[in-house]
Design a protein that fits this description.
Blueprint lengths: L2 H14 L4 H8 L3 H9 L7 H10 L15 H24 L1
Helix pairs in contact: 1-3, 2-3, 2-4
Length: 97
């Protein structure tokens, strides 16, 4: 995975949680431009501390595992929980509007 792919995943998670880039910037102490650049994949480098702070701000976590790792049942269960949460969150938003 490269930084552009990570930024795209981050953006989807931020939007699913109804957060603005400014919200994330305030939570992490980073400049809103850094958040935007991260999402757009235009940063050439972002330190580990900043990366973790950004991911935690949208309830994501960094998992390190060997390259070529095959999905486990835990991975699949986690993906289903995230998908269910996202679907329920979207449904609730639609009802409120």
């Amino acid at each position: 995975m490269n930084i552009a792919e990570l930024g795209s995943i981050f953006r989807d998670a931020r939007l699913a949680r109804g957060l603005t880039q400014r919200d994330v910037a305030l939570r992490t102490g980073l400049h809103p431009t850094t958040v935007s650049d991260f999402e757009r994949g235009v940063l050439s480098e972002l330190g580990l501390t900043k990366s973790i702070a950004l991911l935690e701000a949208v309830d994501l976590e960094l998992v390190v595992r060997p390259r070529g790792h095959v999905r486990t049942l835990d991975d699949i269960a986690h993906e289903r929980r995230v998908a269910a949460t996202t679907v329920l969150g979207t449904a609730r938003k639609r009802v409120r509007r």
